[in-house]
Write a structure and sequence with these properties.
alpha/beta; 10 strands; 375 residues; 8-stranded parallel β-barrel; 13% strand
Length: 375
């Protein structure tokens, strides 16, 4: 009888211990589903001082929580956080940590995304520049040092609430260049923070088509794989001045054949090469097919997959764009993908940057019609 009692007590202790470990693991896990980018604030903006400080405040964080978002992605740029001599610029650091404090207060998780660095800019080639990061060991060590400094400040935040995306939209000529850099930065960050969730994107602007070349660090469950998706570009970037597709000003349909044969034939030859892909049928199944490579890789490694950027330009045809949004949300939900809308209050956003109210309430309603965290 004593042996049986001892066995039962031992069993209860083991069960309790396993339950505690499971609960601890769940409490430290970075769980996300529905997010939005806080763009053109600590990244891609020359605004400083009081105006920058007012751009994102507690009202914005509360609003996003109330609208059903569970996390934000915060792009940051090297030039806002360090001067050219590598000295910290305190104002940006204070804004970032203050916002992360607010996110934690309102139970909103955050991905800190190192968006643009001096040795790498995702649009450098299109703007006549060049990236030196992948050939320059010094620049790579500087990237690692930036993350060491960021970790030194951000490691106070729970792993359940803050994740790191150590570079946005890599553009390496050879995919192995990006894979080698992933390994270097991953090793450095894991030495500092073994349990922190790290977000890793694919090469060439985090395209789904390059996922097959992505070498994911092995035996690390605290990773999220990321892709960006704006297809069909002729719809989501309609008349956008910074892209060749934006030169097309004809009619666009979705779903269906986006650019009719008549409209295509009437275009100058200089535009035809950029829009020919959109003269075929586009619908929900097309979107699923385009994203499938990324889904397959994430399943292979048993890792969560996130669409870190997606959305449509404010000048895109509204009716067709909303149909596309609903199809995107359906694809995300059916494949259990998390996502970050690009963006909150920029030219792809739903909220006016002057806090005057909605710029696109229909977009917000469409994106929040899908499944939230835990649904």
């Amino acid at each position: 009888m004593k042996k049986l009692s001892f066995f039962l007590v031992s069993l209860m202790v083991i069960v309790a211990s396993c339950t505690q470990k499971t609960e601890e693991a769940q409490s430290t896990k970075f769980e996300i589903k529905r997010g939005v980018n806080l763009s053109h604030w600590l990244s891609q903006s020359e605004v400083r001082g009081e105006e920058r400080a007012k751009h994102i405040d507690e009202g914005d964080i509360q609003r996003l929580k109330e609208y059903g978002f569970d996390h934000v992605r915060i792009p940051i740029d090297e030039e806002q956080f360090w001067d050219e001599d590598g000295k910290k610029l305190p104002e940006a650091w204070d804004l970032l940590t203050a916002t992360l404090d607010l996110c934690q207060k309102h139970d909103l998780r955050a991905i800190v995304d190192l968006h643009i660095i001096r040795s790498h800019y995702f649009n450098a080639v299109n703007e006549g520049g060049a990236n030196t990061l992948f050939e320059d060991t010094v620049a790579q060590n500087q990237l690692i040092d930036m993350w060491k400094q960021l970790s030194g400040v951000l490691n106070k935040y729970p792993t359940s609430h803050v994740a790191y995306e150590f570079m946005n939209e890599p553009v390496a000529e050879d995919p192995d260049q990006w894979n080698q850099l992933i390994a270097k930065v991953h090793k450095a960050l894991r030495t500092l923070e073994p349990q922190r969730t790290l977000v890793i994107g694919s090469n060439l602007w985090q395209s789904v088509g390059t996922f097959k070349d992505l070498k994911v660090p092995e035996n690390d469950p605290n990773l999220i794989l990321s892709f960006h998706f704006y297809e069909p570009f002729v719809l989501t970037h309609y008349t956008a001045w910074w892209t060749p597709v934006g030169r097309y000003t004809g009619k666009v349909e979705y779903p269906g054949v986006m650019v009719s044969k008549e409209d295509f034939d009437n275009q100058p030859d200089s535009i035809k090469k950029d829009i020919e892909i959109f003269t075929h049928e586009w619908n929900k199944d097309t979107l699923q097919a385009h994203i499938q490579d990324a889904i397959d890789v994430a399943k292979k490694y048993n890792l969560q997959l996130i669409c870190g950027e997606w959305g449509y330009y404010e000048k895109s045809p509204k009716e067709q764009s909303l149909r596309w949004v609903k199809d995107m949300i359906a694809v995300f939900d059916e494949n259990n993908l998390a996502w970050d809308l690009w963006c909150y209050d920029g030219d792809f956003g739903f909220w006016n940057p002057d806090d005057s109210g909605f710029k696109d309430k229909e977009m917000l309603d469409a994106i929040t019609s899908g499944k939230g965290l835990g649904e």
